[in-house]
Amino acid sequence: MNIFICRHTQVHNPKKIVYRRLPGYRLSKNGERQAKEIGLFLKKYKIKEIFTSPMERCVQMSKIIKEIINDPKIKIYYKDYLNEWDEGERTIDIAKRMRFILRGKKNNRIYVSHKDPIRVFLNKITNQPLRELDHWDCPHGSIYKITIRKRILAKLVFTSKKEC
After folding, report:
1. Of 6, 40, 80, 86, which one has the greatest count of Cβ atoms within 10 A?
2. pTM, whole model, 2 decimals?
């Protein structure tokens, strides 16, 4: 079974605000271009569903990916467990909510989320100690392919090109 964990692409944030869960932060023009690249990369897989954080930047990216893959059967689901880190939220709580990704047999699904929740999830499923969290770089527009067989393997398979 293979699933794909994607970090949203570049956000329009000219004032460099730490926006976490603030509304109104959408993709930049470059972020839209990066999302199209991701859609083209994922098109070769038989994607069945897209699960996304409800934050605008992730929803926007999910819609672009669906448009590029061009399969009307693909549905997009908005999931709070994929949401950005919340003020005061503990790492263990992020790990618990992100474990919903592994529920059921969800081959060839895409999960669109944010840097910190993705890093915590990858760290947890690969049984790494917390001090190894920085091992997972997770740049904007990155895709980790998670292969689940007898054990779980996580591999960075795509990163978007940097700014134009």
Report:
1. 6
2. 0.93
Q: Cβ neighbours of residue 21 under 8 Å, at least 6 residues apart?
A: 55, 83, 84, 86
123 phi, psi to nearest 5 deg = -60, -45
The answer to whether 65 touches 31, Cβ cutoff 8 Å, is no
> Is 10 in contact with 141 (CB distance < 8 Å)?
yes
Largest separation between any pair of C-alpha atoms in the chain: 46
Strands (E), 16-104: 49-52, 75-78
Identity of the residue numbered 139: P
The token duo for 129 is: 């100690």
**What angle do helix axes 56-69 and 29-42 make, rounded to 10 degrees?**
40
Q: Which amino acid is at 99?
A: R
Could you list the pLDDT tens digit for every one of the 164 residues in the chain? 899 999 999 999 888 888 888 888 999 999 999 999 999 999 999 999 999 999 999 999 999 999 999 999 999 999 999 999 998 999 999 999 999 998 876 789 999 999 999 999 999 999 888 888 888 889 999 999 999 888 888 888 988 876 43
